[in-house]
Each structure stands twice: as structure tokens, then as C-alpha cells.
Design a protein that fits this description.
Length: about 575
């Protein structure tokens, strides 16, 4: 029998706690499940249900009509109750409707995922119904059958809450414990008032890395969305940590001595008699399995204070996982570092339309935030090129995109990008939410937060690196930047430190050599500081001299295969080398 297509209603069932029953009494479980399978197959087939998958004791059934699925669920519970009056094999059921894809006899898509998560929230004997199915069956239910509204609930791995109903019949049990939704798990995660756009691959990566690491640190430049990603991951992992997921916001703390106090406050731990606060925390966490999120660690790790506390916590509690956000790593044994990328930007294209760029994360974020400030805004073929130019101009940095989108209240996308290109990004990208931390209210403030934490030597090198356009190699940086207080041997360590503090991007190895670059937004920020400090002309001279030497050395080999290092520097974006050589010959 071919399964239904188009809008399909799914009925998923399974036995609550079946694994434990198999462990305790395998013979009884085997007999009971055989009876369970026979009953359900008979009921499903009698009501034109298409069984497209069975997994252990779970059935996945598709119906062309939502009403048939609801009636089948009720009849199945009747039949199970008569065969199993002691409720030895409590079966939970879930109904969800929607359009899906069908391939090789199986179904794929959002309704299938929602049905599975809905089933996991229920209890044996309970029939749960999703919002879409409830709307389809509401007016056609028999008088004795009710839809009880259980409210909106967040379910594991689902971005948006689901309004859930319970299908009730007077002859069936109707009192059940609270749903197993994320709201019932202990946590202190703040409610997110804005949508989480894109980042599906990044969310998956972070969850996979965290599963294999006791400490995972998300690093990245200011405004890159580290905190928002960490909170999204934490929300999706609530079900995996029975003792909760707890956020500790470290940005407001200026005294490293208050780190332990902040952790204890978030966890609800009090100092025990005869123990200091850290020891009290350790004692409380020793037998627990929980996820601790330490947000904005960078400013408290200058003296290693944050790292020392994290190290003590992790060595004393085997069930603890720490997810940290910081502009630099904590540099602990066992730490996994993961740098968050900027939002994906489409490659250059001649034909830019709303459809061709509207699916990209950076553009989607701009459109969603712009619509929030001006509901009539929409991505069109006429404004799509300007929106794309805005996203590229700010390197796909989420905070910068949001600040640019806020200007839609008074400007068009074309006006925004023209103002950026004429006066620079930083005067325009201001006016963040008044409730946001100061460092997130303007793009300049976000970069100030990172810049002010650099040493004087790091600042000096960062200023000098802005002379490179399109990236550079280590030999180039050592030659061009090692003057006026910086020795050549210092460049590698300083460059590594700047990369570790998310001020310099390290590109994947190419031709056997590591390349470095600055985001153009950071480059513009540093240029603004240099305008006040001077010294740029001497740096340009040094840069010119170095690449003149590279060009002259390369000239005899231009018709041959150049060495990887030489070719990399010659083609690194220094477009004026040809002009320099011509001028020197003249």
C-alpha cells in the first residue's frame, strides 16, 4: 500500500520505559510487546493507517486525514487498555500534521521531527496533539472527545515553541504529570526575545564538540554572536543535563575575586561552614551532571583567575561540562577551542535578486531585524544588491548587521551603504538597544572592548598590519612590521597572540604556508585610531620596499612555476607592485 502524500498526519507511538522493563523482566517484556504489536497493527490497518516504519516498540504511521489519525489513537488506547488492564506496557502517542517529502517509502521534514519530539514529551497512556493537527480536527471531534490545551512548550532541538494539546476521552485516563519539555528542566537561561537566524551548522558543531570535551570555549571578535550561539546550544541540550543548565554572566564583574560568588549565585549554592566558597561549590557539584555556561571570560582571565576556578571545578566533578565564551581561549589542559565564523556571505555574482541572496544567513538576519523596526520592509529585487553590499561591508558580523538594519527606520538600504562608503561604518553603526550592554550598543564600543585589552606591543603590531591588503604571510609581517620598538623575533608571538584574541584571522593553510588577514571592519577601526596617532607613511614605505624586493626577485621566474611562498606574497592583493617596478625602472 502506498502512503499518503501532500498534507499528512503522523501518529507516532512507543512504550514509556520499555528499556527498563526489558532489563528487569525480559521474558515478560517479550510477551507483552508481542501482544502490543499485534493490537496496534490491527487497529492501524482497520483505520487505513499506513505503517511506514517501526523502531523497536515504536510505530510510525501516516494518515491522509487528521480525523482518522485522532480516532485511531483513541481506539488504540481502548484496545491496549482492555488487553493490559494493569498498564504494564504504557503506550504514549503523538499526532502532528504537515507537508513532507517522501523517499523510498519513508517520510522526511519538519512534521516528522515535530511528531518525534512531541512523543518524547508525553507519558504512557497520553495522546498529545500538535497545533496544526488540533486546528484540523477541532470542529469534527465527537462531543465526548476533548482537546485540552497544555500551553506552549519548548521541545528538544526545535527552535520555536510548540503549542500542545491533549486528546481526552471519558473512558481514558486524563491525569498525567507535567510534560517532559525543556521548561521542566532546571535552568536559568534567559528568554530570547529575537529569533535565532541560521547557524544550523555551527550549532551542530558546537554540540558535537561539547559532547567530547569537558571544556569548550567559543572565541571570536566582538559582535560575532558568541553568547547568542552558546544560549541556543544550551537550550537544545537541556534534556541532556538532569541537574540543569546554568548561565553565569561575567561581563559585569570587574573583580576576579567575585567569579566564584557569581557561579555560586547562579547555581543557588551557599558557602558551607568550615569551607570557602569554591570548596562549597565543588562539594555541591561533585555528584551532579550539569552544563555551566561562562559568558564573556576574557576580561577576567588576564591573571588566570577564571582559568584557575574552571580547572578546579572540572577536576573535581566528572559530570560537569563547561561552555565558555571569550575573545580568547582560557588555555587550560583539556580545553577545546572553537572560533565562531562570521555569517556566511554569498560569492560575488552579477545577477543579484531577492531570491538568489535571500537564503543566506547574513541577508536573512538583516531582513528580519529590518522588518522588526519597519514592518513594511521587504527584500526585493531592487534593494537586494544594496542589502548584500551592506552585509559584505561589515564582513558578516551579526552585531554590525543588526545595527545597520536598525537604520531602516529612517534610511533605505541604498542610503545606508552609500553612507557607509562615504563616511565609514563606525559613525553610522550606533544606536543599539538601550537594554543591551554598553559594549553592544555601537560597533565601535564592541571593538573598543577588545582593543583596550591588548598590550602596547600587540597594539603596535595591529596598527602596522593594517598596511596589508588581502592578507599576508609571516615573513612579510616580520620584515614590514619589525621596526620602531618591535624586533623581528617578536612578530610570531605577537601575531599568534592577536589571532588568539580574535583580532587577526588565520586562514586555512595554502601551498604549505599559513596566511593571515584582518577583517575589513577591524582594519577600518584600527585605521581610525592610526589617523590620530600618525606614522602610517613610514609604514607604507617599508611595505613598498619589501614588496619591491619580492617583485624584483620574482621577475626572472614569472614565466616559470613560482615557489609557493613567493607566489603567495606576489598575489596577496598588493595590486600596485607592477606600478612600483615600472616607476623604479623609469
Amino acid at each position: 500500500m502506498n502512503g499518503p502524500s501532500g498534507t499528512v498526519t503522523f501518529l507516532f507511538t512507543d512504550i514509556e520505559g520499555s528499556t527498563i522493563r526489558w532489563e528487569r523482566a525480559p521474558a515478560a517484556a517479550r510477551e507483552g510487546i508481542a501482544t502490543h504489536d499485534t493490537i496496534l497493527r490491527q487497529v492501524f490497518e482497520a483505520h487505513q493507517g499506513h505503517i511506514f516504519k517501526t523502531i523497536g516498540d515504536a510505530f510510525c504511521v501516516a494518515f491522509s486525514r487528521a480525523g482518522d489519525a485522532a480516532e485511531t489513537a483513541i481506539q488504540a488506547q481502548f484496545a491496549l487498555g482492555q488487553a493490559d488492564p494493569d498498564n504494564q506496557l504504557p503506550v504514549r502517542m503523538a499526532l502532528y500534521s504537515g507537508e513532507t517529502d517522501e523517499r523510498d517509502g519513508d517520510y522526511f521534514g519538519r512534521p516528522v521531527n515535530r511528531a518525534a519530539r512531541l512523543l518524547g514529551a508525553g507519558h504512557g497512556g497520553q495522546i498529545l496533539v500538535g497545533q496544526t493537527t488540533a486546528e484540523l480536527i477541532r470542529d469534527d471531534l465527537p462531543k465526548e472527545v476533548l482537546l485540552r490545551d497544555l500551553g506552549s512548550h519548548r521541545l528538544k532541538d526545535l527552535q520555536h515553541p510548540e503549542r500542545i494539546y491533549q486528546l481526552q476521552h471519558p473512558a481514558l485516563r486524563s491525569d498525567f504529570p507535567s510534560l517532559r519539555s525543556l521548561e521542566t528542566r532546571p535552568h536559568n537561561l534567559p528568554r530570547q526575545l529575537s529569533s535565532f537566524v541560521g547557524r544550523a551548522n555551527e550549532t551542530k558543531q558546537v554540540k558535537e564538540l561539547l559532547a567530547g570535551a569537558c571544556l569548550l570555549t567559543i572565541t571570536g571578535e566582538g559582535g560575532s554572536g558568541k553568547t547568542r550561539l552558546a544560549l541556543q546550544v544550551a537550550a537544545e541540550l537541556l534534556e541532556d543535563y538532569p541537574d540543569g543548565v546554568w548561565l553565569v554572566e561575567l561581563a559585569p564583574i570587574l573583580d576576579p575575586a567575585l567569579i566564584a560568588q557569581s557561579i555560586a549565585a547562579s547555581l543557588g549554592i551557599r558557602e558551607q561552614p568550615g569551607m570557602d566558597l569554591v570548596e562549597s561549590i565543588l562539594g555541591s557539584l561533585q555528584t551532579k551532571r550539569l552544563l555551566l555556561i561562562l559568558d564573556n571570560c576574557e576580561h577576567l582571565n588576564d591573571t588566570g583567575a577564571c582559568a584557575r576556578i574552571v580547572a578546579r571545578l572540572l577536576t573535581s566533578s566528572t559530570g560537569l561540562r563547561v561552555l565558555a565564551t571569550s575573545r580568547e581561549a582560557l588555555e587550560l589542559v583539556g580545553e577545546t577551542q572553537w572560533r565562531i565564523p562570521t555569517l556566511f556571505l554569498p560569492a560575488s555574482q552579477s545577477d543579484v535578486t531577492a531570491r538568489s541572496v535571500g537564503r543566506y544567513e547574513s541577508v536573512r538576519l538583516f531582513v528580519e531585524r529590518a522588518t522588526a523596526v519597519r514592518s513594511s520592509f521587504a527584500l526585493t529585487n531592487s534593494n537586494a544588491p544594496s542589502v548584500l553590499r551592506i552585509c559584505r561591508a561589515v564582513d558578516g558580523i551579526p552585531l554590525a548587521i543588526e545595527l545597520a538594519a536598525a537604520r531602516i527606520s529612517a534610511m533605505s538600504p541604498m542610503q545606508i551603504i552609500e553612507r557607509m562608503e562615504s563616511t565609514g561604518k563606525f559613525p553610522l553603526l550606533t544606536g543599539g538597544l538601550k537594554t543591551a550592554p554598553t559594549r553592544q550598543q555601537t560597533l565601535r564600543a564592541a571593538f573598543d572592548w577588545s582593543y583596550d585589552r591588548l598590550t602596547e606591543s600587540e597594539k603596535t603590531l595591529l596598527h602596522r598590519l593594517t598596511v596589508f591588503s588581502g592578507g599576508w604571510s609571516l615573513p612579510a609581517a616580520e620584515r614590514v612590521c619589525s621596526e620602531g620598538g618591535l624586533e623581528e623575533w617578536q612578530i610570531l608571538d605577537l601575531l599568534s597572540s592577536l589571532a588568539g584574541k580574535s583580532m587577526v584571522v588565520v586562514d586555512p593553510e595554502r601551498g604549505g604556508e599559513t596566511r593571515y588577514r584582518l577583517l575589513e571592519t577591524i582594519r577600518e577601526y584600527v585605521h581610525g585610531i592610526q589617523a590620530d596617532q600618525g606614522g602610517i607613511e613610514a609604514l607604507r614605505d617599508s611595505h613598498r620596499d619589501y614588496f619591491l624586493e619580492v617583485a624584483e626577485e620574482a621577475e626572472p621566474h614569472l614565466q616559470q612555476d613560482l615557489s609557493g611562498a613567493l607566489l603567495t606574497d606576489v598575489t596577496s592583493g598588493q595590486s600596485y607592485i607592477t606600478t612600483i617596478v615600472a616607476n623604479q625602472r623609469a
